[in-house]
Amino acid sequence: MSMAQSPEPLDVDRERTRTGMSKTALKQGFLDNLFYIQGRFREVATPHDLYMAAAYTTRDRILERWIKSAQRYKTNQSRTVCYLSAEFLPGPHLANNLVNLGIVETATEAAHELGLDFDAIIAEEAEPGLGNGGLGRLAACFMDSLSTLQIPSIGYGIRYEFGIFDQTIEDGWQVEKSDNWLRNGNPWEIPRPKIRFPVLYGGYTEQYRDHDGRSRTRWVPAQIIDGVAYDTPILGYGVGNVNLLRLWKAEASESFDFQAFNVGDYYGAVHAKIEAETISKVLYPNDEPEAGKELRLKQQFFFVSCSIQDMIRLQFNTVGPLDSFAEKFVIQLNDTHPSLAIAELMRLLMDEHDMDWDRAWDITHRVFCYTNHTLLPEALETWSVSLFERLLPRHLEIVYEINRHFLDEVRVHFLGDEDRVRRMSLIAEDGERRVRMANLAVVGSRAVNGVAALHSELVKTTLFKDFHDFWPDRFHNVTNGVTPRRFMVVANPRLSRLISETCGSDDWIRDLDRLRDLEAHAMDSGLHERWHEVKIAAKRDLAAWLKHRTGVLLDPEAIFDVQAKRIHEYKRQHLNLLHIIRCYQRLKQSPNQDMVPRAFIFGGKAAPGYFMAKLIIKLINAVAEVINNDPQINGFIRVVFMPDFNVKNGQHLYPAANLSEQISLAGKEASGTGNMKFSMNGALTIGTLDGANVEIREEVGKENFFLFGMSAEEVSQRQREGYHPWEHYAKDAELKSDIDLINSGLFSHGDTQLFRPLTDRLVNQDPFMVLADYRAYIACQDHVAEAYRDHRHWTRMSILNVARMGKFSSDRAIREYAEHIWRTEPHPIDL
Ligand code: KOT
């Protein structure tokens, strides 16, 4: 039988049974996979074998939909969203895929009948930590929503061999361990050794005349590396659509390096292979501040070049000529990390596909859209011209040419305003000349968006003000969202069941606005009781988890007050700490006072090179040690640091929180998405008017949100006037005594210097105005404690928070991108 022929009907039937959704089919599939893939009998299988068999059994059921989606998209010539992101944080796949397939119950029963502990199997899966935090997790939520909304799409990124480091805590300090997530194999990915593209680096360019006598440019590289595709299927919820997460792995190019080395230089050739593979070896673990490393630039170009070449291949395979490339594809740049794609598409269109500048530019600037995720100046990517030229000589020429055309337009529009020209240039000329990637992204895209309403306003009025003056219509807002499948259904099955029972349907899972149906029951005492039980059960689970990992025992009746996110000064974990120290001092001064018990829970990683963030972790653990071991406190307040906060561990945290800490300095957090995850799970927020907090408060109602602190406007005014943190220190006796307590050495076994870098920075510089917001924060926390005493009222607020979270589904965000930015349509695949 040739490959093109369809299989015999008998085979089709057999296949259907093999991948059927019945309990019997699942059990059979599981035992088959355990035997034929893992090579094990049930009796000798390790927990990991069982997980692998369960994963393959689940994957088998996705494959058919995957093939069908690919075929349908191809015949329909569907417009495709290509989401380019240096980071993806999908979280463990198994539980999520079972939810999206709609077979959680059947699979649980099947496992039970086989005598297996299903929760233990699910817990076996390693975290695919291919991202740092919010930006990477957003990309994963968007992939889930794109599939659920049946929009053809491909997520393109890097298959890092080592993802974000695993965090352990030793003597209170963060210690980084390498994350070998592929060690035991990855059942979700399918290698595509034939989908392979050469990526060029270094060398020089030269002019030549083509056969028509036209002057052309040729890039003669010094190094060629291959990118090989690894595909992970992304199944939508309750639909037949499966989209693709296509991650590139770097390999030595046989055709180039092996020849380039002297014949017989075997070791040299092996060395070249190792060097090639370092490109996709490790994720850079920095959130926000830019590292400026050569390998990082090589990584960015690596995945961008493979992805654009892949799109061109797909264009030829489906539609045909490149003229309609911008109709077939839309490319969304997840921040500036992939913005080299703009220059790479220009290069490929001109140098490899014979287009002239104008036609190539017309396609390029119509195909790209760019999302900005931060205003922090230290996070804005720039690359030194000399490094750029050494690695990407042809792209530098193209960037210069884009800049020349662009600045000509600016000069015509703003006659004589050379200052503006200097600010808008793609090249910074003050000091060492640098390529400004954000400017490249704006100039090369037809749409630019921020990630929350406030952030998008600040993008227009501060960061890209000049660009907004020039192209006002190019700027948009799409407020972030998160997927309720992962963060409610997978993470919090108890609450999900309660919601479905209360609303009489589980439609809310695909249409989160339906959560509004809960409002009618917000006063219902029956619901209150069950709501409370669900929360308490999650708190018990978390308490057990934390006890096992940290030894700290939490009281499930206490307020679970949680701050989980990357550790960064702008996020102000140290403001939270000052409140904890205040509670401690109050209890020490009047041990018999009637304080509401609290468990303060932190989680988050610090960039390995970010000393101040690591010192904050140390201080959290130091404060925890003193408070948790003080007999006078008697467990009234407890402090615990959850090690290795990631998607997987976060799933224990969101369902258990009563209070969500969203306390960044206003104007600094672009959006935040943890704020949404907590609120969806019934936590109330204590927060500033920053990022998406503003919109969360609008939705849930100001009476159901604990607001404190300066607004972004007030922050900039204070900064303009001149901010003097030591005045707060001098004037506020309690603040002074909290900071002094840190300096006293109480938390550092008498060492009065250990935390000095942190306290000195607060008193003398305080770039994120912790001291200015301290008083308002403490007062607000006192309101929280009072509110918690009224259980009925608190529970009502909790229900209303959940009921009003519809806006923060990533489905809504993706619909807005599809309608206002991408102009894409759903392409349903029938089940
Ligand atoms: C990192 C380096 C350079 C530029 C941006 C970043 C970045 C921004 N990494 N994560 N973010 C976060 O992105 C989230 C998703 O939009 C936001 O919710 C969050 O506020 C950003 O800090």
Automatic annotation (TrEMBL):
PROSITE patterns, A to Z: PHOSPHORYLASE
Molecular function terms, GO-annotated: glycogen phosphorylase activity; pyridoxal phosphate binding
Modified residues (N6-(pyridoxal phosphate)lysine): K677
Broad enzyme group: transferase
InterPro entries listed in its UniProt record: Glycg_phsphrylas, Glyco_trans_35, Pyridoxal_P_attach_site
Record has Phosphoprotein as a keyword: yes
Membrane-crossing residue ranges in chain numbering: none
Swiss-Prot/TrEMBL GO biological process terms: glycogen catabolic process
Gene3D superfamilies to which the protein is assigned, alphabetical: Glycogen Phosphorylase B
Family matches, as Pfam families: Phosphorylase (PF00343)
GO cellular component: cytoplasm
Swiss-Prot/TrEMBL cofactor(s): pyridoxal 5'-phosphate
Enzyme Commission number: 2.4.1.1
Annotated keywords: Carbohydrate metabolism, Glycogen metabolism, Glycosyltransferase, Phosphoprotein, Pyridoxal phosphate, Transferase
Record field: catalytic activity: [(1->4)-alpha-D-glucosyl](n) + phosphate = [(1->4)-alpha-D-glucosyl](n-1) + alpha-D-glucose 1-phosphate
Family: Belongs to the glycogen phosphorylase family.
Job of this protein: Allosteric enzyme that catalyzes the rate-limiting step in glycogen catabolism, the phosphorolytic cleavage of glycogen to produce glucose-1-phosphate, and plays a central role in maintaining cellular and organismal glucose homeostasis. Phosphorylase is an important allosteric enzyme in carbohydrate metabolism. Enzymes from different sources differ in their regulatory mechanisms and in their natural substrates. However, all known phosphorylases share catalytic and structural properties.
Identification of the protein by name: Alpha-1,4 glucan phosphorylase
Gene source species: Thiorhodococcus drewsii AZ1
